[in-house]
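Hey, I'm writing a tutorial for new members on how sequence and structure tokens pair up, and I'd like a real worked example in the thread rather than a made-up one. If someone can provide the structure for the chain below, I'll link this post from the tutorial.
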Amino acid sequence: MSGLVLKLGPQERVLINGAVVENGDRRTRLAILTPNAHILRLRDAIHPEEVKTPVRRVCYIAQLVLSGDVDLADARIQILRGMEQLSQVFTDPDSRAQLDRATAYLTEGQVYHMLKSLRSLLAREERLIAARTG
């Protein structure tokens, strides 16, 4: 994760290598220089009881890697399988581009960026589910 820049709002919390860090009263920018640091914005965290859809499932696995609870080597196959399943559902060009980006980030070991790409599919997934049930 060398060169990752986090922009934090006031009182925003982030998990860095297992430690919860809270920002002060002003917006701030942090440059994370340590490669392979485990970083997770807590405002973006998906809680276990919220893992009820395919996109959320893959995001949650990536989140476990970022929090340091699971090793990337152990999670890689699950993430790849999940993204393969997602690619069968998300066939529009923009979604495919996000999945391709996420796959490239995974290949490079950039889990934070991979999660960011996958999270962009959450709203689309909600719309697909709503259309199917509505």
